[in-house]
Amino acid sequence: MTAVRDPRTRPAELPLGWLAEPRLLAGVDAARLTDYRAHLVQHGPAPVPGREALLGQLDAVSLTGRGGAAFPLATKIRALRAGAGAEVVVNGCEGEPASAKDTALLTHAPHLVLDGAAIIAAAVGADRVLVAVTDRATAVGLEAAIGTRPDAPRFEVRLVAHRFIAGEARALVAALDGGTPLPPGRRIPPTERGVGGAPTLLSNAETFAQLAVLVRIGAARFGRVGTAAEPGTALLTVSGAVRRPGVVEVPIGSSLDSVATAVGAYPSQAVVIGGFHGAWLPPDPRIELSRAGLAAIGGSLGAGVVIFVGQQSCGLAELGRVAGWLADESAGQCGPCAFGLPALAAEVQAVAAGAPVTGTILRHAGMVRGRGACAHPDGAARFLNSGLAVLAQDVARHQVTGGCGRPDRGHLSTSRDSAMAGRAVSVGMAS
Amino acid sequence: MTAVGAAPRQLSVDWTRCDGHGLCAALLPAAVQLDDWGYPIIDQAAIAGASEPEVKRAISACPALALRMATR
After folding, report:
1. What pLDDT sits at residue A14?
2. What is the pLDDT of residue A64?
3. Helix (H, G, I), strand (E, B) or coil at B68
4. What ipTM score was computed for the predicted complex, to two decimals?
5. Is A325 helix (H, G, I), strand (E, B) or coil?
6. Sign, Cα dihedral of A249, A252, A254, A255
7. Beta strands in B6-47 (DSSP E)
8. Per-residue DSSP letter, A283
């Protein structure tokens, strides 16, 4: 079963900013880069390396997918089944409600994404590029931007139904093939059998834009920012208890403190990194925003979502509400997820109401892990477990007094529109 | 025991098909337990040690055709 939902409306304007130098966001404050000529003035023409040269550059900077799984792009290209016409798919679905970076990129710097996709299409011998998005405004804007390109005919924009797991690679392939946006039960990767059965190179929109920057500036300059193991920049979507929520391009490995300063974060009791499949962490200003830095403390960067949970909000109420949302977002096609997540949600909500954390809740969190067609139960379990751990003192306080007196201020917004709408553009917010 | 270099046998579940009928747990009690909602929890080490005909019987008994052998 699946609920096909209306295409979302896009937040009117997203504030954009950066630490150090903007790359993907370079020039977005000065020109309308939706026009291909303006894009060329800003970035220059994109070289089109052959397959081997491209793979060499990707290997040199270890470019990984920016949708959350962080799979090496070069490995994905090498895994494409040979002997059949390949497909290239740009995933702009952005199922994470607290993520807005791909929409921001497709809205403000679409030609970097399209350049990157065209370069990969040339390298793997694909005739066309499919660009999948979930809201009509982004689709319309993309169509207009594509219309200004000399290679416009090779791009097709596809509007697909939105839901949290619809952005999962195999769920998106199913949607592009006209089916329901659900991951199939057998784990056959799109590189083997994707759109229309063809070997398919599918990656997140930001991945393609990073590639378009890489071929222009070369691996050496690309690696001047970032860490040795993870060169370059990443787009973060920062929200919650902050004065200026928005999309920020940061050198990989930037400290949480530098991001907190850039967005004007209020004093926080916790930070959620990696979105609703990510982890709650104590708001240590020294947290290094890289895959390695987060892995070392049990977190993950995911698709770059950073949410500050302010001290004025009840963290357990926020956790319980998102637990319910995660249960609702189960597609209901796999039993352990369909039954396990609602059970977990009820148990976490009971803890928010003053019940102790029991063995049952921990057992149920363990029980959903690895037992679905996609990673939704795994991600949900990680999110809930880490939340209960970080909020342990609150759990004790709630048991004694039945609560903490603070309301749920909605710092973890399950609606992207309410998290981001109504903010003025303030480009170049930080040094 | 599996031969050196051979991938161990695994019993894999297609979670989109499994309806929690529970026949696998009845037929392979040493290797398959049921969770709180009736869905199988598979001990792959026990599967690797089970006799192949027993495992195949469980696979073909599944009313939802949700089980298959996989190597990892």
Report:
1. 63
2. 96
3. strand
4. 0.88
5. helix
6. positive
7. 9-13, 32-34, 40-42
8. -
Quick check: A281 and A386 in contact, CB under 8 A? Answer: yes
Chain B: closest CA distance from residue A423 (Å):
41
Q: Is the pLDDT of residue A431 over 90?
A: no
**Residue of chain B with shortest Cα separation from A360:** B36
Q: In this predicted model, what pLDDT tens digit does every residue of A93-120 receive, in sequence order? A: 998 899 999 999 999 999 999 999 999 9
Q: Which two tokens stand for residue B62?
A: 């599944």
Contacts of A340 in chain B (CB under 8 A): 35, 37
Rounded CA gap, A427 and B6, in Å?
57
Q: What is the pLDDT of residues A263-283, one digit of tens each?
A: 999 999 999 999 999 999 999
Asked if the Cβ–Cβ distance from A371 to B38 is below 8 Å, we say no
- Check residue A166 and report its DSSP letter: G
- For residue A4, give both structure tokens: 């096909």
Rg (alpha carbons) of chain A, rounded to whole number: 21
Q: Which domains does chain A show, CATH number per domain?
A: 16-222 (3.40.50.11540), 315-406 (1.20.1440.230)
pLDDT digits (tens, 9 = 90+) for B51-61: 999 999 999 99
- The residue in chain B having the minimum alpha-carbon distance to the alpha carbon of residue A342 is B37
Residue bearing tokens 């495992």: B55
> CA torsion sign, A408 to A414 to A420 to A422?
negative
pLDDT at A1: 26
Interface of B with A (CB under 8 A): 13-20, 35-39, 41, 66
* Cα separation, A375 vs A42, whole angstroms: 39
- The pLDDT mean for chain A works out to 91
Torsion over CA: A430, A17, A311, A391 (sign): negative
Q: How is residue B19 written in tokens?
A: 């309806």
B20 to chain A: which residues are within 8 Å by CB? Answer: 335
Place of tokens 């930080």: A430
The CATH class, in words, for B9-71 is: alpha beta
Distance between CA A52 and CA A54 in Å, rounded?
A: 5
Interface of A with B (CB under 8 A): 182, 184-186, 333-337, 339-340, 343, 364, 367, 371-373
> Which chain A residues touch B21 with a CB distance below 8 Å?
none
Interface test with B, best of A186, A187, A364 (most B CBs within 10 A): A186
Q: Within chain B, where are the H helices?
A: 23-27, 44-49, 52-61
As a whole number, mean pLDDT of residues A287-303 equals: 95
